[in-house]
Amino acid sequence: MNPLNNARKVRKANGSTLLELPVSLWMVFVVFMMPMIALSSITMRATLMMVAVQDAVQGAAKAKSFTTSGADGLSAKDIATARFANFLSNFAGLQASAIDLDIVQTTIVSGQIQRFRDQLPSPSDTNFFMYQIEGKTTASIDPIFPANEQIFGRVAGLTTPIQITLSARQMAENAQGLNR
Question: What is the C-alpha to C-alpha distance for residues 158 and 144, in angstroms, rounded to an integer?
Answer without folding.
Answer: 9
